[in-house]
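Record type: monomer structure entry
Structure origin: computed from sequence
Chain ID: A
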Amino acid sequence: MDFRKFLVFCTVSCSVSFFYGQQKDIDTVYVFDNQMNKVKLFHDLTTLSPQDIQKNSSNLSEVLRFQSPVYIKENGRGAVSSPSFRGTTAQQTAFVWNGININSVFLGQGDINNIAIFGYDKMEIKAGGGSVIYGSGAIGGSIHLNNELRFNEGFKGNFHSEIASFDTYQNNLKVSYSNDKFSFTASGNYFISENDYEVPEENYINRNGKFYNTTGNFGFSYKIAPKQKISWQSQFYDAVQNYPIFTENGNRTKYETQTTRSLIAYDINTAKLSNSLKAAYTEENFQYYGVFNAPKTSGGTGKNYIIRDDFNYFILPKLNFNFIGEFQQNKGEGYQSGISSVSRNIFSTAGLLRYFVNNNLRFEAGIKKDFIESIESPLLYSFSGKWKAEKWYSLGINFSKNFRFPSFNDLYWQPGGNLNLKAETSVQADMSHEFSAGKFKLNLTPYYMKVDDMIQWIPTSEGYWSPRNVKNVESYGLESKISFEHQFSQDHALKLATGYSYTKSTDLETEKQLMYVPFHKVFGNADYQYKFLKLYIQGMFNGKTFTTSDENNDYKIDPYFVLNAGLSGTILKKYTIGFRVNNITDEIYETMAYYPLPKRNYSIYATLNF
């Protein structure tokens, strides 16, 4: 990243952003992704705090594996990792950073273990389509990495240091300062691991598994007038990831990546009318080394320039109109991939209408059209409703059409790129039922989805692989969640959350389950606090998972159950010391064929708040 370009960008970019005037914390908290407040009105989200993320501090894959319904396919701990949401592919899950879709322009997906795990104030996981608001790839679901800036909190600091098995070390520092007009926050993280774990029962050693990464996050917000703010958020990420080898004399390879994301905003909000005009720049650089200490074998640079306007107007106190317009330019330049220098322009316009009948009943309808250079895109739509029928029961419905347009690799990789590809499209529906009894809540959400023109790379008669629109997929299933939270006294508190998902995702041509889509997944987290002591327990069960397209049981991943736990103590509200045990029962398991994950392992950490 050219730092001079970054400074120029920060100087010349500006935007406008807003929150609902009805929010109590409108003047004390600034959230960059203002659409999430509206999404929560109609959709059930899984929300994770920084403290939740710390429980699975090795990487983002572990966080999602143990605390969400998403299935994570990982080529060994810390290596290449991809998600499956409601039986879809990695390209059909959108990663969203502060309201900006950050899926790679080359791959069309996010590599989970090359997305920073720390530096966010909140992580939110949304199941179901969201292309009307969040664009290409938001088919199976979306994962939101959000930052907040708070006012009137003075100076705060937090330092976290952790030592773990396999020569793993990490340090994280965060500082912030705010008064009634100004808020600033900065954080940095350093993470390194030799990652040389062994699974003797499988005759497996994670050779050449070392990885490290560093992350820097910076943000500020300034109230230039009672109803106006100027705000900025940036993230810088640098990582090296070695790829595991199966034999001691195998060819060692590695992958390096550098990522920059920057967003700047200028906010105005009135009682009836508000507007949000954001400018963002994202950049991804990567280099692959087929021979460890030799020059790079391949690589690339992708850049995105984005301008997004979000206009809201309350036509009536109960009727809200929301217009979203976005222009982005994608640029890509590859090395040894046949992608010399390519670019495309994308313009989209969306309109949403929300009607609040009363406090217990509300509706939302949306429509969107994308204009993508050289690619035909469908008309997208969405409809949602939420009804609190009784004190103990709420009903929600969602229906939408979503899409994913081809990535640069799909279109331009040589040999094999296909300029005649069509966008993938999906139509889906779900119905959520929420039951409550005292401190207990139960959510049941059956869903259905059909994906047409799914892009798949297949071998050609010329001897290379090429992408084609060859698959139509049908997915249906059930997502459920039970939660309980109660403060028994000043000294005792208990929080429970357990989720179960059933997924049937079928290739309509072969009538077989898609690869790496488990039929069953259960995850659970329990937190108990007694005075200054905190204890948590995590469990995750994964059902039978096929690794071939013909459902060959000889190559399936067998069911497994993994249990984690941690204990910490806080003294004087400033000093915390904790201990974690992962995979307590020494379970032998894998999420990707031939790549077992670690057996029992440990970590110890200390946190200082100042």
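Annotation 1: Residues 3-12 form the longest helix (10 residues).
Annotation 2: Residues 264 and 368 are 25 Å apart (CA to CA).
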